[in-house]
């Protein structure tokens, strides 16, 4: 089954404790991206990757890091989480943004205390 | 600045009724426009993708229209069902030098009641 898998789905952590949210897709997609969703603000792009070893900042990259060492994986790293990073995070992938569908994961709800 | 505005912000309709959601955009250069359905707490799921040359596209009871001249799109839902209760997100793609850049609307929250 074609899917984008995120882990963990739910996480409560404390300020400053490094964490990684993993994202994996099984569709051999070149494009992958991370979004955060906050009430009233919609989905905002954090980082995206057009292919292996190619990553670029989205609209709200501050406080986040990513890496793309393999085509299927695109982890999101919070080196020193802060309460304003409490949000619902989505990973997505696509074969091509020209006409290809963008597949989203089920989301990871992160709470930073 | 590229922007996507959706209206109404929220909508309540009775089961079996039709409804239309609106999306206005100022994204350029335009590449494509997408409508997504997002159930509460779940990831968005694609309904339609429309390119510049497409005026109408259907997916079951969902029909999207696109007027590239006025930069407007609508999503029409026919014979609504309780399961249509969700947020509907309009996403417009701009073709930039670095590839496609997506701009998301904040969504229309639809509630279908008995």
How much β-strand is present in the residues of chain B?
A: over 45%
| Count of DSSP-assigned helices of chain B | 0
Total number of beta strands of chain A:
11
Overall shape of chain A: globular
Distance between the termini of chain A: 36 Å
Structural Rg of chain A: 13 Å
Oligomer: heterodimer
| Overall morphology of chain B | globular
Poorly predicted segments of chain B:
none
Major sheet summary line of chain B = 6 strands, mixed
**Structural class of chain B, please?**
mainly beta
Q: Report the major sheet of chain A.
A: 7 strands, mixed
What helical percentage do the residues of chain B reach? under 10%
Beta-strand proportion of chain A: over 45%
Structural class, from helix and strand content of chain A? mainly beta
Q: How do the SSEs of chain B run, as a string of H and E?
A: EEEEEEEEEEE
- Runs of chain A in which pLDDT lies below 50 for 5 or more consecutive residues are none
Mean pLDDT of chain B: 94
The count of helical stretches of chain A stands at 0
Structure overview:
The complex is a heterodimer of chains A (113) and B (114). Chain A is mostly beta strands and 113 residues long. Chain A has no helices and 11 strands. In chain A, the strands form 2 sheets. In chain A, strands 2, 4, 5, 6, 9, 10 and 11 form a 7-stranded mixed β-sheet that branches. In chain A, a hairpin with a 3-residue loop joins strand 4 (31-38) and strand 5. The N and C termini of chain A lie far apart (36 Å). Chain B is built from no helices and 11 strands. Chain B is globular and about 50 Å long. Chain B has 114 residues and is an all-beta fold. In chain B, strands 2, 4, 5, 9, 10 and 11 form a 6-stranded mixed β-sheet that branches. In chain B, strands 1-3-8-7-6 form a 5-stranded antiparallel β-sheet, with no helix packed on it. The N and C termini of chain B lie far apart (41 Å).
């Amino acid at each position: 089954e074609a899917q984008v898998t995120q882990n963990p789905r739910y996480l409560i952590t404390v300020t400053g404790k490094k964490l990684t949210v993993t994202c994996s897709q099984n569709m051999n997609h070149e494009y992958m991206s991370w979004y955060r969703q906050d009430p009233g603000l919609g989905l905002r792009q954090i980082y995206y990757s057009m292919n292996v070893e190619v990553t670029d900042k989205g609209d709200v990259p501050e406080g986040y890091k990513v890496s793309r060492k393999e085509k299927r994986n695109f982890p999101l790293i919070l080196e020193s989480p802060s309460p304003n990073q409490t949000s619902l995070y989505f990973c997505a992938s696509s074969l091509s943004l020209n006409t290809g569908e963008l597949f989203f994961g089920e989301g990871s709800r992160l709470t930073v205390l | 600045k590229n922007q996507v505005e959706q209206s109404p912000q929220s909508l309540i309709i009775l089961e079996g009724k039709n409804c239309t959601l609106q999306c206005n955009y100022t994204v350029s250069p335009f590449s494509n426009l997408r409508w997504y359905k997002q159930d509460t707490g779940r990831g968005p799921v694609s309904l339609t993708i429309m390119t510049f040359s497409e005026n109408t596209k259907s997916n079951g009871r969902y029909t999207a229209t696109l007027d590239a001249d006025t930069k407007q799109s609508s999503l029409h839902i026919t014979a609504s069902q309780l399961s249509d209760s969700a947020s509907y997100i309009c996403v417009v793609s701009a073709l930039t030098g670095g590839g496609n850049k997506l701009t998301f609307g904040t969504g229309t929250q639809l509630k279908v009641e008995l």
